[in-house]
Amino acid sequence: MKTTTTYSIAGPDTFRLASRKCPDGSGTNMQNWDKDVRSLVIPSEGKILGQSDQSGAEAKIVAYLCRKGNFRALFDNNIKPHVYVAMQLFQEKWKSYCEGVSRLCCLKIQDLKQDPEFKPLEKLIKESDNWPPSKRYYYMAKQVCHETNYKIGKNEFVSNTLKKSEGAIVLKPETAQEFLDFYYKLFPEILEWHRAIENQVRTTMLLKNLFGHPRKFTGLFRPDLLKKALAFIPQSTIGMITNIAIVELQERIDNGELPGLDLLQNGHDSILWQCYIGDEKDMAVEVAKHLNRKLLSPRGEPFSMSSEVAVGYNWKPASEKNPEGLKEIIL
């Protein structure tokens, strides 16, 4: 059985595409599928699925919108913010697994990768995303990163976490506030960036993303408008990278340059595709060429986006119960 979708620019206000049923009622939303349901999506006969993902893309944009500080140091040293925040925020939880966690939390970011205790702890933190809801420390840290970068409040943080975890993770407002305060203590440059964007919007009501595309804000300046302003540059820049990459790749497919490659889904910061079995590494390299854009920060600092790729025979991440799912590969 096959399915399809319709993409629309109406709705999202950050150049990302919305996905919905087709006008004739066929198809479905192809973007917001639960991980378990994704196992239903399989490649065509003789082909394998690939998903190219802009790794930590929005957070990396934020790091270069801010002054150079600890947040940018994470990207300079190839450490995922979610891992670092989970290590620091839930330090006490890791002590039964890693005796040296307190010492690791005190190290400079540039020294973490060289420490022999960090790699196994990093792996453990990522694995916690599959633990029972109350112990999904990686997921909670990921939510802290995403939400706090855009100045979320404690009550909205509780609500968003509950919704995104489908009711599995319930936090008290005071716990949420502790998380948010801790994050700003780790990365004070993010608060400075918030103030700079607020000042710019109050003064001009205009922002431009890193491609130079503008957005004019209208109406009274309220907290919800500031949240939209903070999200605009990172989200619209990443959305445009994905959109441009898909157009460029489809042009190459139509010109016969990438035989067997089919583009299946626009995931805002990722592209789902399929290709002939055996060609997946070559095609992953080609997709990465279009996602790994070179950009300039507002201060004129050059930096490059990066992407990761996973391949498999269904759209769900691989696990013991789903060995045929997407597995990350190194290019």
Radius of gyration equals 20 Å
State the end-to-end distance.
Answer: 32 Å
In N-to-C order, the SSE pattern is: EEEHHHHHHHHHHHEEHEEHEEEE
- The geometry reads as globular
Q: How much β-strand is present in the residues?
A: 5-15%
Q: Helix proportion of residues, in percent?
A: 40-55%
Largest sheet: 5 strands, antiparallel
Strand order of the largest sheet: 6-7-3-10-11
Q: Please report the number of helical segments.
A: 13
Number of E-state strands: 11
Mean pLDDT rating: 92
Q: How does the helix and strand content classify structurally?
A: alpha+beta
**Spans of 5+ residues with little confidence (pLDDT < 50)?**
none
Protein described:
The protein is of the alpha+beta class. It has a domain at 70-186. The protein is 45% helix and 14% strand. The protein is built from 13 helices and eleven strands. The protein has helices spanning 57-65, 70-76, 81-89, 91-94, 101-106, 109-112, 118-127, 137-149, 154-164, 173-186, 188-204, 223-254, 280-291, and strands at 6-8, 18-20, 47-53, 206-208, 214-216, 262-266, 270-276, 294-296, 302-304, 308-312, 327-329. The strands form four sheets. It has a five-stranded antiparallel β-sheet, with helices on one face. It has a two-stranded antiparallel sheet with strand order 1-2. Strands 4-5 form a two-stranded antiparallel sheet. 34% of the residues are buried.
Which key terms come to mind for this protein?
5-stranded antiparallel sheet; two-stranded antiparallel ribbon; 45% helix; globular; alpha+beta
Q: Can you describe this structure in just a few lines?
A:
Helices cover 45% and strands 14% of the residues. By secondary structure, it is of the alpha+beta class.
